[in-house]
Write a structure and sequence with these properties.
This protein is α+β, with helices and mostly antiparallel strands and 582 residues long. Helix content is 28%, strand content 24%.
Length: 582
């Protein structure tokens, strides 16, 4: 027997009994005639003691042990004289009688502690060691618990879990496919699914009216902190539902997770904002509404005063930062430098300081009188002591820059507090996006999303004005997921493919199987998919989803631990009828 207890289990009630523990050596402390070892496993840490006067040989053996050795001990549970309130087992220690080294360890490349000296690249290279650290372990345990609660909620609400295939046909769904060559069908390729979209719609046609799956999806796209080439999705679909039915079901899931995982009660209905509202007031379609500081359009108010930058701008907007009117010139210059960064993309920043004595001081005093600046302040609901920050230019770019500035100011003012949550739904997205260079349209979500008002919308001579029957769940500025009511009619789906530039032959080649299935009684249906990794990262207070994935890729899409992707042997390429060219 390797252990009678784990290293996080023993308490004061277990005194004066014998135990056997196995685990990894966290730390060895040699103090004169005594040696102490902190023994760690997945469950916690227990202190071991070795006394030179009681058993010299055993104590000397313990002193030769290094960090991360795997050992087995047997001993008596005694009360600690210097209790450690920071660990659950801090009232007891083990007076060791037997010690067995199960496996020695080299000195690890970084310390296996909460605050480690290892950089991210190094920790990714030795991820199996990084996984021993408490912060990573907590993330994976949280992920497990959330997965169990998701399954519990969906099962209780009548959903069944159905697996869908990983080797599928390549279909255009918004990102590049990862493709897999077929050995038996030379020159042909499978694709890894970007989502199980068409399969869950086929399951609705098959009569399985409530489906879910916690499933791997694959997208060959650029990487960032909330993206991985392979990610996990909570994928769901329902039949005989309208938009409100789907939103109510998954708002319930969100509330269930908040309560069961974080003990965070949300008793109110989530706010519902339109896409247009979000873009005008927050500058993006995933707003953080834990604080105000909304964007105000002051274009008509400020034009015509001889200030060329404003007079020639398509759009002028600003935000009001409360209690920042005392910002020094140095602090304002730093803000100007911030908005000029490439990731923000602004050309500059105009400020108006609303002094506590009621006077106004701005960077454009030459062009605007105090009376005119007061109108700005009133339009932006400013009061004495506040700071107005204004940008101008092309509307979309200016709103995007103001959105980033809004979050920056919120961070400076500590308005985005950890442990507070503000979920909402965003609805009424555009159905299509227009490529200004080519003039062609792309589906904003995917080509199976139904238009808001049904078939008649698809006759609109201005397709960019059509709204989608779609919805996103946003929490604290993070898009957790979303979905739509699907097209379930062959004629409407054919019209949608036509708007997207597919010929009839191309549509048949790509999606003929789905179009054919619609002919055999497709029910009205809709669903949603949520980023499981993102949701866990949010609950874990992590900046990156890599923190809550056991074996993630780095920002370049590489697995540094197993050195993947890697080159194939020439014999493998030949068997697959492939040739790699420069």
């Amino acid at each position: 027997m390797y252990r009678t207890h784990n290293c996080g289990e023993l308490r004061i009630e277990n005194l004066n009994t014998e135990t056997t523990l196995s685990g990894w050596v966290q730390k060895v402390r040699n103090l004169g005639g005594m040696t102490f070892i902190d023994l760690r496993d997945r469950y916690g840490i227990t202190q071991l003691t070795f006394n030179m006067e009681v058993d010299k040989d055993l104590c000397e053996k313990a002193r030769k042990i290094g960090r991360e050795y795997v050992i087995k001990i047997t001993g008596n549970i005694t009360e600690r004289s210097n209790k450690n309130k920071n660990i659950a087992t801090g009232d007891i220690e083990i007076d060791v009688k037997k010690l067995e080294i199960l496996n020695a360890s080299e000195v690890p490349p970084f310390t296996i502690e909460d605050k480690t000296d290892g950089g991210e690249e190094q920790r990714m290279q030795y991820r199996y060691l990084d996984l021993r650290r408490n912060p990573v372990k907590r993330g994976l345990i949280l992920r497990h618990k959330m997965g169990q609660e998701i399954r519990k909620y969906l099962d209780t609400n009548g959903f069944i879990e159905v697996e869908t295939p990983y080797l599928i046909k390549s279909t255009p769904e918004g990102a590049r496919d990862f493709v897999v060559p077929s050995r038996m069908h030379k020159g042909s390729f499978y694709a890894l699914p970007q989502s199980p979209q068409v399969f869950k719609q086929l399951l609705m046609i098959s009569g399985y009216d409530k489906y879910f799956q916690i499933v791997k999806c694959f997208r060959d796209e650029d990487f960032r902190s909330d993206r991985q080439p392979e990610f996990t999705q909570i994928d769901c679909e329902m039949s005989f539902v309208e938009q409100e039915d789907v939103m109510n079901m998954f708002e319930g899931l969100a509330k269930h997770l908040f309560k069961e995982i974080l003990n965070y009660e949300i008793s109110y209905d989530f706010p519902v904002l339109s896409y247009d509202n979000c873009m005008e007031n927050y500058g993006n379609d995933r707003p953080d509404i834990r604080f105000g500081m909304t964007i105000k359009n002051i274009s008509e108010l400020v034009k015509g005063q001889g200030f060329k930058i404003f007079d020639e701008a398509e759009y002028i907007g600003g935000i009001c930062a409360e209690n920042c009117g005392e910002y020094s010139r140095k602090m304002l210059d730093k803000l100007v430098s911030f908005v000029k960064r490439p990731q923000v993309g602004a050309n500059g920043l105009i400020y108006v300081k609303y002094n506590k004595d009621g006077t106004l001081k701005s960077s454009v005093d030459k062009f605007y009188s105090s009376e005119e600046l007061k109108k700005w302040a009133d339009a932006m609901n400013a009061k004495p002591g506040d700071l107005l920050l204004v940008m101008s230019g092309e509307k979309a770019k200016t709103l995007s820059a103001l959105s980033i500035l809004r979050l920056e100011m919120a961070d400076r003012l500590e308005l985005r507090k950890t442990g507070t949550f503000a979920p909402l739904w965003v609805v009424d997205f555009p159905l299509l996006e227009k490529d200004e260079e080519t003039g062609t349209f792309h589906a904003m979500h995917h080509p199976f999303t139904s238009p808001k008002n049904g078939k008649k919308d698809l006759e609109n001579p201005k397709p960019e004005e059509i709204y989608a029957n779609a919805y996103d769940l946003v929490i604290n500025g993070h898009e957790i997921g979303g979905g739509s009511i699907r097209i379930h009619d062959t004629e409407m789906q054919a019209k949608m493919f036509e708007l997207l530039g597919f010929t009839k032959e191309e549509a048949d080649e790509q999606f003929g199987f789905l179009m054919n299935a619609f002919k055999y009684g497709a029910p009205p249906h809709g669903g949603a998919a949520f980023g499981f990794d993102r949701w866990v990262a949010l609950f874990n207070n992590s900046d990156s989803i890599r923190d809550v994935i056991a074996f993630p890729k780095n920002n370049a899409g590489k697995d540094l631990m197993i050195n993947s992707p890697s080159l194939l042997d020439q014999s493998q390429l030949k068997e697959l009828n492939l040739e790699v060219t420069e």
